[in-house]
Amino acid sequence: xxxxxxxxxxxxxxxxxxxxxxxxxxxxxxxxxxxxxxxxxxxxxxxxxxxxxxxxxxxxxxxxxxxxxxxxxxxxxxxxxxxxxxxxxxxxxxxxxxxxxxxxxxxxxxxxxxxxxxxxxxxxxxxxxxxxxxxxxxxxxxxxxxxxxxxxxxxxxxxxxxxxxxxxxxxxxxxxxxxxxxxxxxxxxxxxxxxxxxxxxxxxxxxxxxxxxxxxxxxxxxxxxxxxxxxxxxxxxxxxxxxxxxxxxxxxxxxxxxxxxxxxxxxxxxxxxxxxxxxxxxxxxxxxxxxxxxxxxxxxxxxxxxxxxxxxxxxxxxxxxxxxxxxxxxxxxxxxxxxxxxxxxxxxxxxxxxxxxxxxxxxxxxxxxxxxxxxxxxxxxxxxxxxxxxxxxxxxxxxxxxxxxxxxxxxxxxxxxxxxxxxxxxxxxxxxxxxxxxxxxxxxxxxxxxxxxxxxxxxxxxxxxxxxxxxxxxxxxx
Length: 478
What we know:
Layout: H1 11-20, E1 30-31, E2 37-38, E3 48-54, H2 65-75, E4 79-85, H3 88-100, E5 107-111, H4 115-120, H5 133-137, H6 141-145, E6 148-149, E7 152-153, E8 155-162, E9 164-168, H7 169-174, H8 179-185, H9 189-198, E10 201-203, E11 206-213, H10 219-229, H11 248-262, H12 275-283, E12 287-293, H13 296-309, E13 324-327, E14 341-348, H14 357-371, H15 373-383, H16 390-396, H17 405-416, H18 427-449, H19 455-470
Parallel strand pairs: 3-4, 3-5, 11-12
Antiparallel strand pairs: 1-2, 5-14, 6-7, 8-14, 9-12, 9-13, 10-11
Helix pairs in contact: 11-19, 15-16, 18-19
Protein name: Multiple sugar transport system substrate-binding protein
Signal peptide: 1-22
Region (Disordered): 23-42
């Protein structure tokens, strides 16, 4: 798909408008003729550099970094947007290293769920006093709320999507799976288990698995978290603030996920499968269903199909044409579907020293530039993600997108069951849960997937750690 990156035809008009603005940072609001809301300008034209640590948000995103920086400076001649690229694999480590050193980037792309951790470390920057009403009003409120904690706003959202699974249409139909019914009605764990068993095929000495999920490293928690939401544990805490993963449903879920490997429906070496290997396995016909999946995977599959057809050497080696089908995750333990809503965005940070009011305003300008208008439209179209800003929707009207209508409907259906954000969980509890997840859940779950830890042993370890963190009265008991 051909992408259109920002062409800022109204730069001169905007610059004149900004020059005319006076007063204090964040008190005046300006809207460009192109529909991109701009933050208020200060009277000062002092040079300033805003740093951003950004992963490959979409397939073509990192290719645009040089142009993004040029376009930003065209909007704000005194400002420089310095972008540091990172892979998905090392993004978290890079950011945490910089945060721990007390010198994080001004902006970093990441999951909204990590915001409480950085608030607790004292380096997440609340921009609620600087972001203008026009900026905040540009966003769908539900998406914007994910970037909040308490009364604070810690950046701008890039997209709101659901984590789903993805299937190879041909293989699904060969296995007798009514994927259209699954898209509309979902499936239970037992139905899913039997379906992926049917997807296991051995041809020419090679095995095609029914299901493969990327779980190497931090990706392990994605798998467990997505499934936990569909097992009656949509949040790490219950409504009365008890740590949820000591529930009997958690043990049942661990047993179920291990069972899929023991069935032979998933690779025994699953613990070594990272995101790249998972996608390669899907495109080369080594698995019927893959996860986690975002809508962008349909676009990526189509792009690879086109390369195969054109005998393009850059197509994934040994890949086959794939018709990508969006599928919901199964439900466990008789629970209702609770789709894992993912809101990633541009988080804002401060260093050990309080930033100047001017620099803080400039960070907001840069974060909003990346998360709205033409930039957001192009990025979200590349992702096949829904537009969550008015300015992005407007800019996207001229951008063509080729998407399977069944997949669109499937995502819309999952969004109806999406897990809403909870702003009532105190940041100290949320930060402790993230710490427990990092130090106990991830390594134990990787051990479970590798066959080195039993479900009961993992559950016992999580429960012991939870009691240590939250106390006997701070955990769920059933």
